[in-house]
C-alpha cells in the first residue's frame, strides 16, 4: 500500500506541476504503475514564421546603420586630421612671420574698407589674383615647398592670408588641409617621360591661368553667386572656372569645374556687393542642386557652372544682415576653392593642372591671427 500511495502522490505532483499539462494514460489511475504523459506548450508555424520575419527586419535595420557609422567615423577622422594639419601649417607661417625682415613677406592685400585674401603659391605672377602681377611676396620661398606636406605625403595644405596695411603688426592666415583622393600621395610623375618629379605644393585652381598676365583684369577668379533663401538656407552658383586647353598647355587655363560636396569656399574680396565682414569667411558646399532651387528671375551664366546648397551650420545667418534674394544673388564675390583634385597635366608638364576628377580633397580648415615682425624692415 505504501508503494501505491507513493506512485499516486508522484502522479498528483506531476498533474499539479505548472510547467506542463499532463493526463493519465490509463483508465484506472489507482493502479501502481500509472503512467503520465507530459506535453510542453509549443509554437505554431505561423507564430514561428512571424518571429523570423520580425528578426529579419531587425537585422536589416541594424545592417543599414553600419555604412552610415563607417562614413561618419571616416568624416570625423578626416576632420580631426585636417584640423591638426591646418593648425600645424599656421605654426609654420607664424615662425616665418617672427623672423627678422618678415614684414616684406606679408605685403598689404587690401584695406579695411575693401579687404582681400591672397594665396600663398609658387607662381610669382599669382601670389594674388586681384592686383598687379609680379608682386611676389616671397612667402612661399621662405616656407619651402616641403613645408606644404606632412611626413605622410597623402596630406598637404594650401595657405592664404589677409593684411589690411603694411604697418599692421598682424595678419590673418587661412589654411585648407587636403588629402589626395586620386593618387596615393601628392608626388607626381611626368606624363612625357614617366620620371618622378619633385614635390609641388597644391595650388589653388584660380591661379592656373595667371602666368603671365597682360593686365590685372586677366586674372582668372572663380566666383560664387550667393542666394539667401526665405527658409534660411543658402544656395551658391559657382562660375568663371579656369578651363584647360590641351593644345596650349596648363598656362592658359585649368581643369574646369572643381566644386564638390564637402569643399570649402573662402571669400576673397568685396566684389559685387559682398560685405567686407564676409571677406575671409569659410563656407562649405553641401549637395549638388538643380536650377529649381534658384529664383525664377535669375539668368544662369553662359559659361560652365555648378549649383550647390551649403551644409547646415555653414549657411548665411540673420546676424550677417543679408537681404533675402529675389531675382538676383545677394552678393557674388571672387572665391578661393580647392574642391575636386586635378589630374596630371595631359601635356606632360608634370603639374596637377589637368581635368578635375574624383571626390573632394578638402578635409579641414583653420584660421588665426599671427603677429608680423615689423622691426628693422
3D architecture notes:
With 377 residues, the chain is α+β, with helices and mostly antiparallel strands. It has one domain. The chain is 20% helix and 20% strand. The protein has three helices and 14 strands. It has helices at 2-16, 45-98, 139-143; strands at 21-24, 36-39, 118-119, 155-162, 170-179, 223-228, 234-239, 264-267, 282-288, 306-310, 335-337, 340-342, 356-360, 362-371. It has a six-stranded antiparallel beta sheet, with no helix packed on it. Strands 3-4-5-14 form a four-stranded antiparallel beta sheet, with helices on one face. It has a two-stranded antiparallel sheet with strand order 1-2.
| Parts with pLDDT < 50 across at least 5 consecutive residues | 122-137, 188-199, 209-219, 246-253
Mean of residue pLDDT values: 74
Can you tell me the number of structural domains?
1
Gross morphology: globular
Number of strands: 14
Largest sheet descriptor: 6 strands, antiparallel
N- and C-termini, Cα separation: 122 Å
What pattern of helices and strands is seen along the backbone?
HEEHEHEEEEEEEEEEE
Structural class: alpha+beta
Percent helix:
10-25%
- Spatial strand arrangement across the major sheet: 6-7-10-9-8-11
Number of helices: 3
Strand content: 15-25%
Radius of gyration based on Cα positions: 34 Å
Amino acid at each position: 500500500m505504501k508503494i501505491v500511495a507513493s506512485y499516486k502522490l508522484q502522479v498528483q505532483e506531476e498533474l499539479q506541476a505548472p510547467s506542463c499539462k499532463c493526463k493519465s494514460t490509463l483508465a484506472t489511475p489507482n493502479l501502481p504503475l500509472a503512467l503520465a504523459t507530459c506535453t510542453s506548450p509549443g509554437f505554431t508555424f505561423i507564430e514561428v514564421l512571424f518571429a523570423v520575419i520580425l528578426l529579419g527586419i531587425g537585422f536589416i535595420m541594424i545592417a543599414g546603420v553600419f555604412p552610415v557609422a563607417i562614413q561618419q567615423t571616416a568624416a570625423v577622422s578626416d576632420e580631426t586630421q585636417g584640423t591638426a594639419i591646418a593648425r600645424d601649417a599656421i605654426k609654420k607661417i607664424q615662425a616665418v612671420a617672427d623672423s627678422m625682415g618678415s614684414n616684406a613677406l606679408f605685403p598689404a592685400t587690401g584695406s579695411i574698407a575693401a579687404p582681400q585674401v591672397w594665396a600663398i603659391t609658387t607662381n610669382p605672377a599669382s601670389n594674388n589674383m586681384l592686383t598687379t602681377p609680379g608682386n611676389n611676396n616671397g612667402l612661399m620661398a621662405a616656407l619651402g615647398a616641403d613645408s606644404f606636406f606632412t611626413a605622410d605625403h597623402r596630406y598637404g595644405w594650401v595657405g592664404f592670408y589677409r593684411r589690411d596695411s603694411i604697418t599692421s603688426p598682424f595678419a590673418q592666415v587661412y589654411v585648407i588641409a587636403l588629402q589626395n583622393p586620386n593618387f596615393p600621395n601628392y608626388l607626381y610623375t611626368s606624363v612625357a617621360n614617366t620620371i618622378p618629379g619633385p614635390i609641388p605644393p597644391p595650388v589653388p585652381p584660380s591661379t592656373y591661368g595667371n602666368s603671365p598676365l597682360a593686365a590685372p583684369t586677366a586674372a582668372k577668379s572663380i566666383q560664387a553667386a550667393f542666394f539667401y533663401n526665405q527658409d534660411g538656407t543658402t544656395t551658391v552658383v559657382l562660375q568663371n572656372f579656369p578651363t584647360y586647353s590641351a593644345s596650349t598647355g596648363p598656362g592658359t587655363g585649368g581643369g574646369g569645374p572643381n566644386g564638390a560636396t564637402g569643399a570649402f569656399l573662402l571669400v576673397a574680396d568685396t566684389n559685387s556687393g559682398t560685405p567686407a565682414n564676409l571677406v575671409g569667411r569659410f563656407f562649405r558646399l553641401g549637395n549638388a542642386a538643380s536650377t529649381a532651387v534658384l529664383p525664377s528671375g535669375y539668368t544662369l551664366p553662359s559659361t560652365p557652372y555648378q549649383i550647390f546648397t551649403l551644409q547646415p551650420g555653414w549657411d548665411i545667418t540673420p546676424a550677417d544682415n543679408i537681404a533675402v534674394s529675389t531675382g538676383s544673388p545677394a552678393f557674388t564675390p571672387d572665391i578661393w576653392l580647392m574642391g575636386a583634385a586635378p589630374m596630371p597635366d595631359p601635356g606632360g608638364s608634370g603639374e596637377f593642372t589637368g581635368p578635375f576628377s574624383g571626390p573632394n580633397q578638402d578635409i579641414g580648415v583653420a584660421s588665426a591671427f599671427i603677429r608680423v615682425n615689423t622691426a628693422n624692415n
